[in-house]
Amino acid sequence: MRILAFETSCDETSAAVIADGRVLSNVIATQIRLHAEYGGVVPELAAREHLKNLPVVAESALRQAGLGVGDIEGVAATAGPGLPQALWVGMRAAQAFAFARNRPFVGIHHHEAHLYSPWIEGEPPEAHFERFEPNISLIVSGGHTVLVQVEGILRHQVLGATMDDAAGECFDKVGKLLGLPYPGGPVMDRLAAEGRAEAYDFPRPLIREAGHDFSFSGLKTSVRYFLERNPDLAADPQRLRDLCASVQAAIVDVLIAKLMGAAHRWRVRCVTASGGVSCNRAFRARLGSEAKAAGMTVRFAPPSLCTDNAAMIGVLAERRLLAGDRSGYDDEIRPNWPLETLAIER
């Protein structure tokens, strides 16, 4: 099928065209500069930008794919989870397009799309589901930290999730405490590369707990108290690098321990990671080495598909449409859509 997909769950406006698993185009308009002034995403501003940007990126996606509106055989959009105002723009635009052209429409769960992004690879990107094997998947981003057992295509169960702050949220909030530009995560990654991870000892929340849940708010609070005791630390370039490396090490230790622990418990031979934080260099290096030592395969989503993007939405939408799944032209957005309910709904 030739699928037109929209993604507007947060602050990236994206449109993509998918055909037979191949990503023919994937256009993204970012809003980072707009929200940097406020140190975080402002929902109302994000929605306004989506309204302005979506027609432009959709037209660009069709043009890059070499297709016209009449060539599209199915339409998809992120239905949730996400910011309500932002989701509404993409969802209603996709439903209107599908209704006007009498094409099937499907609303996609943002996290479920992340689960299958590690199976998209190559140039141009293409889904390789024939290589799929059961895996434990970690979705780790600014808004989400979720651990999932993926038994098969469109079959999964949630093992654990964050109980408070997501890992990426912790990175960004610590970055803000340090006075770093927004978003703080990528900046901390760069600074940490020249720092000493053993310089400062920060807590690893829940790392020794048997369960699969995460918690990062305590780590953030620990850093805040540490900075109150050491107010001049951030002004020293090397101590700042050491602090970034130490905080990063605490976060990465927890993520790897939980992911590998679940893989051993469920006896799978493959682990995957997706979401913006999975681009972190220390995380990728550490997971790669630990998976190799355990005799496991590791698959990462391509960096271009780690942040919010319509390509992963379209790839999953094609599978679901071919399986006969359909959503209504008047279905509502689902800002708090739990991933675990998908198995029940199917």
Which architecture of the largest domain would the CATH scheme give at its second level? Answer: 2-Layer Sandwich
| Number of domain units | 2
Number of strands: 12
Helix percentage: 40-55%
CATH superfamily of the largest domain: ATPase, nucleotide binding domain
Radius of gyration: 20 Å
Helical stretch tally = 11
Identify the strand order in the major beta sheet.
Answer: 3-2-1-4-5
Secondary-structure content class = alpha/beta
Distance between the termini: 22 Å
User: How large is the share of residues in beta strands?
Assistant: 15-25%
SSE string, helix = H, strand = E?
Answer: EEEHHEHEHEEEEEHHHHEHEHH
- Rounded mean pLDDT score: 95
> CATH class of the largest domain, anyone?
Alpha Beta
Outline, from the CA principal axes? globular
Low-pLDDT stretches: none
